[in-house]
User: Which sequence fits this backbone?
């Protein structure tokens, strides 16, 4: 795995999912079940740039009810090269309507308030997932 001298890597992702009961719980379980520590979670309504690229802010379910999609930004302590990370992301991909992996980079310590500090020799590795087509 990509890491600095103390062996810590942080990965940052963004995903969208329908705003339905239990959806976030299921998404976070993808990481919890694999002993991956989530360091930061933020939510935002789906913005204009995302809408332009991946579709409207709302979708309709099978009953015609409009369902808002929410963007979640998540940082977790694991590297993209780890099998458990790939398994968590593959599981997450089954639950979400959009997934963007920003990349993994080395961190030198857990830092204050759960916010990792970048190592001076950080490296970034990224890849982008296509939006789901259902």
Assistant:
């Amino acid at each position: 795995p990509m890491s600095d001298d103390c062996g810590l890597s942080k990965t940052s992702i963004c995903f969208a999912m329908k705003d339905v009961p239990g959806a976030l719980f299921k998404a976070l379980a993808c990481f919890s079940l694999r002993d991956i520590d989530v360091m930061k979670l933020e939510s935002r309504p789906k913005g204009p740039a995302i809408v332009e690229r991946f579709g409207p802010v709302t979708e309709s379910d099978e009953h015609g009810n409009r369902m808002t999609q929410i963007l979640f930004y998540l940082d977790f302590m694991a590297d993209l090269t780890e099998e458990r990370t790939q398994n968590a992301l593959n599981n997450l991909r089954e639950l979400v309507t959009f997934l963007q992996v920003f990349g993994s980079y080395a961190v030198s310590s857990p830092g204050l308030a759960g916010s990792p500090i970048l190592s001076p020799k950080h490296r970034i590795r990224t890849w982008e997932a296509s939006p789901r087509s259902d």
Remarks:
- The longest strand covers residues 66-77.
- Residues 54 and 64 are 20 Å apart (CA to CA).
- The helical segments are 23-32, 48-54, 83-93.
